[in-house]
Design goal:
Elements lengths: L1 H15 L6 H32 L6 H24 L7 H29 L5 H21 L4 H21 L3 H56 L10 H18 L3 E9 L2 H7 L1 H20 L6 E7 L2 E6 L5 H16 L2 E3 L2 E3 L2 E9 L6 H19 L3 E3 L2 H17 L4 H4 E10 L5 E12 L3 E3 L1 H10 L3 H16 L7 E5 L2 H5 L4 H11 L6 E6 H6 L1 H14 L2 E7 L6 H6 L4 E4 L11 H17 L2 E4 L5 H9 L4 E2 L8 E2 L3 H20 L1
Parallel strand pairs: 6-7, 9-11, 11-12, 12-13, 13-14, 14-15, 15-16
Antiparallel strand pairs: 1-3, 1-6, 2-3, 4-5, 8-9, 8-16, 8-17, 9-10
Helix pairs in contact: 2-3, 2-4, 2-5, 3-4, 4-6, 5-6, 5-7, 6-7, 9-10, 10-11, 13-15, 16-18
Amino acid sequence: MPAVDLKAQFTAAKQLFRVSDDPDLMRAQFDAFSKQIPLLYLILISNTIAVAYSYVNVAPDWLTMTVPSALTLLAAFRTFWWLRQRHQVRSDADILRNLRVMNWMTLPIGAGFTAWSFALYPYGDPFGKSQIAFYMAVTVIGCIFSLMNLRSAALIVTLVVDVPYVLFFWATGEPTLKAIAVNNLLVSGAMVTVLFIYYRDFADLVASRKSLLTQQAATQALSDENFRLANLDSLTELPNRRRFFAELSSAFADAERRHVGVAVGIIDLDDFKPINDNYGHSVGDRVLIEAGRRIREVCEGFGPQRVEFARLGGDEFGVVVCGDPEDADLARLGERIGEQVKLPYQLDTAHTGLSCSIGFALYPRSATTAEALYECADYSLYHAKRRLGGRTVTFSSELEAEIRSRGVIENLLRTVDFDTEMELVFQPIVDAMSEHTTGFEALARWQSPRLGWVSPADFIPAAERIGLIRPLTQSLLVRALAAAKAWPGHTRLSFNLSAHDICSPDGILPLISIIEKSGVAPRRLDFEITETAVTFDFVRAQQSIAALKAMGCGISLDDFGTGYSSLSHVHRLPLDKLKIDRSFVADINDNPVSHKIVKSLTGLCDDMEIACVVEGVETRAQLDSLRSLGCDFVQGYYFAKPMPGAAIEGYLAKEREWCDGADAKVVA
């Protein structure tokens, strides 16, 4: 056991005189030495020259000239070498080799200066001998402090210089020199203690710095990953809306600085919602992923322009086309994207197809800010979907004029007298089986003195944009109720409400007051709301609907199938009727998908025990199909076009005459 302890102690002692191979500690030591070692050699050179000068006249020339010159040249060479290391990049192996050279060079250099000092000692008088003692003590202290970052080298210098120093001056027998030797021994012991403490702290500091850098690297990696996830669409793994607008801002700023063009495109998948309704959301998600992959491949392979691509949300994607594109480039990109999107999508055993509409806007022709450029692209997309369908539209002067006309409509709406310029027409709602009129839907019309007839599709959104929809709704409701008061007591009035009517904090209260003052029983009223209005602020919409229901009014969900609300919202609302959008009726006898959608929606109404109303019926064949599917109510041009309130009495009279005649034929 004792032998083992001695061996371990010997091994530990050897480690004190070796250079550590820890890469971070080595680099820290090397960096420190490149600054400190020149100071060490400066101390040696200056002190050596001073001692040699003092002994010039009393000692041989080889001791005062030759040996000091050789030692000084060696120190100067090493100083120059270390000064050069400050600006060089070295490998870990190179650093370790140089530190080891430095470590073992302290032995001959220290021994050389010590031997030279002892050789001069006999030639001096008492003052000269004291100078040698002072020179050796001060120089070794300076050297140890300069070598403290490399503990092994500092210990070697201490042993090579201080041990002979103490023994030599103790052996002189001179009390003063013996006292100096003892004092130097004590100082050296204290310095070695300081050396161990300093080196330990230095090594700990390097280790702490390494740990901190590791933590910073991990934090940076985590930050980078969070940034990537924050800018990534979780479904398609494409850049998301946030990343898209960041890319748009960067590309726009670059184009502005370089005075070149940049384009923004918005891509919308046509007829995507029927896929969700018919096959389910999991299939819809797969279609989105595949469509996104196809569009990305087109964008990545499109040249010479660089195209950034992202999913904006839902079935909408965005592109930023850099590199000064022209109209022909955008048309070519849109054509390639459209061709890829139109290819069949295999969904298990079924196949389905899509098309896409694309709107582009080009800087600097279309807009002067990134936000305005995006709005122009969005309006181009709106134009493509509304009028062309499945096409690519680039923002043009014609579309700019159209936007300006929107501004004209908005400005005129701010000054219009709703009671004189706004009119109401009424379209019958008919029982699908008996074909008797059960009510009328009130529809707004605007005959402007300046613009002529303005479509509700233009002035209703304009009124919503400028905050006039609520006073417009209230004015029209007063007049609609006044007209309904003259109808037979069983005839209902359907009236449309916007998102602003049912989602503003006090939007429903004026409507309740109007109903109470009208003299029309609330049970004769059906308020129609859209899916978009419901999802605008579902909680507040739910509260408004509950207030209307409490009065006895009916609630219809309008244009069902064209919005993006979920069935969970529908189940949570106290609905009385669900209106199926006319877009599914136009080709119900030709398109199996439309037929299936209407069939599923009528089944949904039956399950929820609410009535089903279908819009846009124009032919007998459509009516027969809807009756076979179990639709409760229908409306459309097959029965009557919207009519002024004054024409309703005559319409109902003719209907009664027709019914009386039909009954007489049956009796006969």
